[in-house]
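ERR on first pass: missing label on line 2. Operator R.T. fixed the label and resubmitted. Corrected input:
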Amino acid sequence: MDKQLKRELQMQAIRIRMDVIKGTFNAKSGHPGGSLSISDIMAYLYFNKMNVDPANPDWEQRDRLVLSKGHTAPALYGALALKGFFPESEIERLRKPGSFLQGHPSMRLTPGVDMSTGSLGQGISVAVGMALGAKLKGEDFNVYTILGDGEIQEGQVWEAAMFASAKGLDNLVAVVDNNNLQIDGTIDEVNSPYPIDKKFEAFGWNVINCDGHDFDEIDAAFTFAEKKNGKPSVIIAKTVKGKGVSYMEYAVEWHGKAPQQEEYEEAMNELQDRLSELETLAAQE
Amino acid sequence: MADIITKATRVGYAEGLLYLGETDENVVVLDADLAGATQTVQFKKKHPDRFFDCGIAEQNMIGIASGLSLTGYTVFASSFAMFASGRAFEQIRNSVGYPHLNVKIGATHAGISVGEDGASHQCNEDIALMRTIPGMTIINPADAVEAKAATIAAAKYDGPVYMRFGRLAVPVIFDRSYKFEWGKARALTEGNDVAIFATGLMVNEALIAAEQLKNEGIAARVINVHTIKPLDEECVVNAARECGCVVTAEEHNVIGGLGGAVCECLSENCPTPVVRVGVDDEFGRSGPAVELLHLYGLDAAHIVESAKKAISLKK
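pass 2 clean. output:
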């Protein structure tokens, strides 16, 4: 991947993370851990991959993203705000009455949100329906969906996986955010879905494993995923829950709680330092 | 007496879909391995490119319906009422109702008249479940003519609709001149002694009951409530006011269905005695459909008895 582009994406990912922290801090609730684990993929999708138009959010030929793990809406909101779908100032009103930023994504309220999600396992089916609709219409847009690794314990995910491959939906790319943590513990302790890759392979999908925080690997994974060989593709992204905020990393307690004042400052300082570092590097390159 | 023509409302649904298949290229039909029973197979034969069998996976089918609607299609997703409204309730609530998508649920084999398959397949809860979803329209046609007309009308409406059809062939009560009026309850007989609000196959039973009551000097106003939500409150309140007592009749649990909706409306707007005819909060069982309907009191005789009780409750 082009060095300059990579730096840009790294910086956008940090800005998304700052929005995640800002949003959940002001809301005094929310899900920072899983939002931080998908921030790099979110940056990649909105700033390098998806064909969308912030001035025309309902444009029919746009690529779609269904955030099946809807609780990580803060990362989606960060990406949408940075992309220009709505003013970034709205992030501070996350989860407040009167704000169009709900705790989980609402397509009727938030510009750029392609589907209302939040109840795990449902988003992938809707993404499959969108991909089927695109095929039926002869449109060549792609449909992306992001699932949690705990989410794939839901049976509906496998109903959707079976149907997508049976119908040859190669315009569909699913990402499994494999941060290995769910509310009650590690995913293998709770109810192991491993081996995730073998399961999707058995369901007839192209399977790509990658480091979900490395843009070269993310780029290679998406490039491979879009080869259109008659099969849907899944990217199993190895990630770190809480990525980018040291005290949140690998810590399951940050699944669904907001930082307090001091924690907020510490997180923002860390992210700001990292952003400044990237800006300096970018200037030198 | 002329021969009574009988036809299941699911057949009327299929006729509606066939009409839509010819006239609206945006209509797509889904099923969950019950195409023969739900009758969507008729559409499949004519329009195989716009029919998708999702297999035995109702939850996924509803999600796919949502996704297809988001690419501009008018989607009819079919299964038995039990699995459509029950198995996939939360998918309908969160992936159809909450985003208010243009998905029509064609639920067949509703109620006790499923017959021999028994309680596991006899859904008497679907109206109650669907009524609690904001923005959901619920239509329960009285005969195959109304079923066809309702199906065509549903395609013209932009939003979620739950349509409830039966397995059993029931008398056709409307003729070809019938016009479906969205959201309107209509009186089929005149009378001011008792108002009988009926839906689905109970409309015909209510008409038979009204004849019997007439012979006893009681003038019953039979009102066909094909749209249970939104309820035609104006019609309900006016009839209650004019008749002074009410009977509701449905092939559904007496809790949460038409009876519940009428009671809720009247207790707030025009307190009136109401006697509910329906499945009395119990599960069904195996048996021939018609026999079961009598066994569970879903017939004209029980409506007659209930009408008299309602009249006795008038102040």
